[in-house]
Amino acid sequence: MTARFAPPDDRAIPIRLVSTAEFEDWLGQQDEPIQDWVQANGFTGKVGQILTLPGPDMGVSRVLFGWGNGSDHTRDRFLFAKAAAALPSGTYALDGDLTDNAREEATLGWLLAGYRFTRYAGASPDAPRLKVPRGVNAPRLEAIAAGEMLTRDLINTPASDMGPDELEAACRSLAERFDATLRVVAGDALLDENFPMIHTVGRASTRAPRLLDMQWGSSGPTLTLVGKGVCFDTGGLNLKPGASMGLMKKDMGGAATVLGLAQMIMDLALPLRLRVLIPAVENSVSGNAFRPGDILTARNGLTVEINNTDAEGRLVLADALALADETPADLTICMATLTGAARVAVGPDLAPFYTDDDALALALVQAGKRVRDPLWRMPLHRPYDRMIEPGIADLDNAPAGGFAGSITAALFLDRFVSAPRFAHFDIYGWNPSAAPARPKGGVGMGARAILDALPRVLDL
């Protein structure tokens, strides 16, 4: 699905933003029939209220949208997207005195509100279109919206139609569109090329595991994005209960997010060299599935004791990160739907991340605030290293006790990276209930913040 603004020559219906603070003054400036209409319909500028005003021909002449007060905007993102979801098809124009950031958020929210996942049922409605507001970089926002919609589509697609093959096809399509290169190592070739843990996790599936390696750009600083591509996770022999398995089509949300971010970067032609690494597997059960108690050797030579086959994401990421570390980038970012502990800690709406680089962390958090893509820095607490050191092997993939699960997973991944500028995101990739511009279902987390931070972090 693509998101586009209305052509500039379209006649547009203005949408007037009215806050609760200015409502009385605004109302006093209107003609008596408009005052009567507004009062009869109970419009007061309360956040999210929508009222159409009739013109002389009884058609819609204007739309009022309640802008609420300042606290409303700290509680909810993309408030203006409520108008996009509620108004009939047509062309509209934003009428309100907003800061640059608020205008950009309102405009992007409008675009994202047009997203529908219609592959299996329904049809895309004729969504209302918005004229480009003053001062808004339309191509940039269209590229960001398109990248987010790619992420949503990939996550929302069930595993029956989004296995390692299909994830490779999505990556190949992106590479062909932007003249990038794609190298794929699949099946037993993973052993020949020293990706043992990717092979081990995926070998029990009838769908061959693989490593996807996409590269784009010929000059500028280097950025490597690593995304967890577990297309479905049964939990392996430590089988997940049914309630926990129901959403596991989203366990490739890290891969979907880095592909959406990669599309944004390439679409905007950022002056950098991009590499995307995705270990694409299905964690299944068969006679050759890996077992609790097994000890695996990773690409970089570290040994890993398997105490739970359901902690498989960190295993496949370890091989991919070890490959990335062989040619260190100026910035390496890992994104994964890695732990339930992260959801317990920060809920579904925040993207927690880990890094030892204070300047990088500050740039990411500030960017998240600017673009309303909230992030939360978590501690790489080194005293917990002993929790992932079982004695019988170098590392434990699932330390007992249940404490600090997201932190110990991040510390595990950190053992495979020596590059100084590294951040790991433990995302959820799923919106459990509908919100403005974010319908229930797959959702990107952190990508817009990273995109906004890149010019500062990489000096673009």
Secondary structure elements and their pairing?
Elements: E1 13-19, H1 23-28, H2 32-40, E2 50-54, E3 60-68, H3 70-75, H4 81-86, E4 91-95, H5 100-112, E5 129-130, H6 138-156, H7 164-177, E6 181-186, H8 189-192, H9 196-202, E7 210-216, E8 222-227, E9 229-233, H10 242-245, H11 253-267, E10 273-283, E11 295-297, E12 303-305, H12 313-326, E13 331-336, H13 340-346, E14 351-354, H14 358-371, E15 375-378, E16 395-396, H15 405-414, E17 422-426, E18 430-431, E19 441-442, H16 447-457
Parallel strand pairs: 1-3, 1-4, 4-5, 8-10, 8-13, 9-10, 12-16, 13-17, 14-15
Antiparallel strand pairs: 2-3, 6-7, 7-10, 11-12, 14-17, 18-19
Helix pairs in contact: 5-6, 6-11, 9-12, 11-16, 14-16
Protein name: Leucyl aminopeptidase
InterPro entries: Leucine_aapep/pepB (IPR011356), Macro_dom-like (IPR043472), Peptidase_M17_C (IPR000819), Peptidase_M17_N_1 (IPR048816)
GO molecular function: aminopeptidase activity
Return the CATH architecture of the largest domain.
Answer: 3-Layer(aba) Sandwich
CATH topology of the largest domain: Aminopeptidase
- Largest pleated sheet: 9 strands, mixed
| Residues in β-strands, percent | 15-25%
Coarse shape: elongated
Helix count, DSSP H or I runs of 4 or more residues: 16
Total tally of structural domains: 2
What fraction, in percent, of the residue positions are helical? Answer: 25-40%
Total strands: the figure is: 19
Gyration radius (Cα, Å) is 24 Å
Q: Which structural class should the secondary elements be placed in?
A: alpha/beta
What is the residue-mean pLDDT, rounded to a whole number? 95
Query: For this structure, what is the CATH homologous superfamily of the largest domain?
Result: Zn peptidases
Q: Which class of the largest domain in CATH terms?
A: Alpha Beta
| Spatial separation of the terminal alpha carbons | 29 Å
Low-pLDDT segments, ≥5 res: none
